[in-house]
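Researcher: I need the complex structure. Ligand is adenosine-5'-diphosphate. Inputs:
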Amino acid sequence: MTLKKKVTEAFTSHFGGEGTLYASAGRINLIGEHTDYNGGFVFPGAIDKVILADIRPNGTDKVNLFSVDIDEAVSFGLEEADMPSQQWARYIFGVCRETIKRGFKVEGFDAAFAGDVPLGAGLSSSAALESCFAFAINDLFNSNAIPKFELARIGQSTEHNYCGVNCGIMDQFASIFGKKDCLMRLDCRSLEHEYFPIHLDGYRLVLVDSVVKHELVDSPYNRRRQSCENVAATLGVATLRDATLEMLNAAKDKISAEDYFRAKYVIEEKDRVLGVCDALGRDDIATVGRLMYETHEGLSKEFDVSCEELDYLVEIARECGVTGSRIMGGGFGGCTINLVSDSVYPRFIETVVSKFKARYGHAPRIYDVVISDGARRYEE
Ligand code: ADP
Ligand code: MG
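Model: Output:
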């Protein structure tokens, strides 16, 4: 059954009649990892995996939801005290509350929704869910008066204030602003963004999910952030965005070896994002791929956020002749993102599944993705 049929049938059987369909997407990030908190660039795009919601105002002050995938109904009021206990419903409650807090209107509505963004695989199903409802609420109750960037912030604040996830803005930004066949370079210092068309004729983007998540005792994320801050302070810059390799090398004896390599990765990653943007302008896919491998090397050897499973996935990709491969996301597990030519694709998938399974006892999950539109009225 198509997603659309699932959602509209669920709406009709729970609420009767029909509503309006809205969609929003999960996202990938082609390059630009651990750059956001250093004032650098990220380079995400929305994908063809979506949350689809059928929504209709109900003339009350209650929100009635049905999650098709979880097969559960939840209702809540729109006051702070009405927070539901179900985690999935909190994403939507949070979006309502954050919209109201910003002085915009939310009234009661009925909604049924479902999705095909894999949960917890690093494709940001939660941002897709938030963006879908933020977009719909803007359209249904506010005549689209809420600026798009504010919709992304509503999703981000939802994660912070209702879901206990202290995330940056990239996921919600990508999900709201995503455009078919375009990646977006977001400058995490100025928050300006620019679209870059991506022509992947003869290539595919493939995620290989290790289905591994290493829980680490010390907080590796905070430690790395601290290293970046230490070096920025030593170099006398606000963030590593303003540092160069020359500056770093000139101050090398004032910096610990660990901090040096963390900062070196971040400074080089900033230039790699710009290099990928240039290469895409020339349709130079080989260079895009080479820079992705360089990012992986940096994340693994210098920033030290890889793990043996992810290094193995990238090693297999290289052996199979995959054009580019790297960790996507924070590291220590999760996915690799791979740029694969059509001719290499079948052998790569077969090899990566069998080799990984032989070594780790379980198969990785494979997700083909196509760069697509983000939040929208769903008219397909
Ligand atoms: P991700 O990396 O995919 O964003 P999160 O843990 O941040 O992983 O978000 C996943 C959560 O988002 C789920 O546990 C669920 O509460 C909610 N969610 C995502 N997709 C759906 C869906 N299709 N139906 C119901 N809830 C969903
Ligand atoms: Mg999430």
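Model: Summary of the prediction. The pocket of magnesium ion (ligand 2) is lined by residues 124, 126-127 (CB under 6 Å).
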